[in-house]
Every structure is written in structure tokens, then in C-alpha cells.
Amino acid sequence: MKILYKNILIRDAKENDATILTKWWNDGKIMAHAGFPEGINTTVQKVKHQLQEEIKNHKHRLIIEYKDCPIGEMCFFPCHDAVEIGIKICEINMQNQGLGHTILTLFIHELFQKGVPKIVLSTDLNNLRAQHVYEKIGFQKYDIQYNYWKDPQGEMHSAIFYELLPQNFIHQRK
Predict the structure, then answer these.
(1) Most C-beta atoms within 10 A of its C-beta, which of 18, 23, 40, 167?
(2) Whole-model pTM over 0.90
(3) Structural domain contains residue 15
(4) What CA–CA distance (Å, rounded) separates 93 from 132?
(5) Domain limits at 73?
(6) What is the CATH number of the domain that holds 108?
(7) Which residues form a coiled coil (predicted)?
(8) What gap in Å lies between CA 83 and CA 62, rounded to an integer?
């Protein structure tokens, strides 16, 4: 996949992206919202292997660039009658600038153009910033699971689940 809009590029992750992905995934500040306040303690080799396995399993990892610099990552994969997605703006100084909304809108537009019938995602119930962005784009809550999973520190996390149909997609670009 390749999406280019103004200074934003969304592209397929390559093997040499394993270094930046490892840096981001090991950073507790970046991963805290996902329940990993100490990062996930991985290696470049493990991430390279994961990227290869994802391709075999029809999961697509994408890199988000802004002004030619990697700032985050996305993924998508088939899930029953839908496509499940994930997004993370990993460079802290690029968060809260409206880029997430724009990037997500570009990505969703592309998926619907390819004929995806429904997009689903989930986030931590405490991640209010993400929920605001998802709802602004048209995602609708369909479930909340309390104490859904346990993080490495033994804390339970609740999750909120969203879905988006093409007719509910609000896609103004900034």
C-alpha cells in the first residue's frame, strides 16, 4: 500500500523499518496507552521475523512518514466480515497536532475504495484521545469488555470496540 497526501506518506513496512519499530515498541512512553508502560522488550531480529510472519498471515504493517521522517505505524488484517486496523503516532512531538485524524482518514478512505465492507478496531477504555478521534471519523461503539486483558505488570485493562461502515465515514481532510 502507498498513500501520499501533502507531506504524509503511508507505505508498507520493509525489513529495514525493524530498527525504528523496535525503538518505538521498546519505549514505555509510546506503548503505555496500549498497556505496556515499560515497552515490549523486543529486538530488531524479532521484529524482522515478526514482519515476515505478518506477511504470511495476511497482516499488513505500514509506516507513517511526515516530511520524509517516520512518525508512526499502522496495521490492518482480515477479521471475519471486516478488516481490523490499528494506528499509533509514535513520535511524541507529532501527537496532538491533528495528524492522526488526517492519516486515519486517508487510510480508511483507501480501504473503503478497495471494497472493504466494514472496519473494526479496539482501544483501551482509558484512551479517551483515541476514542475522540475514532468517533469524529464516524466509528460507532459496539462493545465494551471490562477486565479484557492483563498487562505484563499484572494490571487488568478494559477495551472498547468500534466499527465503521462506509455510509458512516466522515472524511474531511485537514
Answers:
(1) 18
(2) yes
(3) yes
(4) 19
(5) 2-168
(6) 3.40.630.30
(7) none
(8) 15
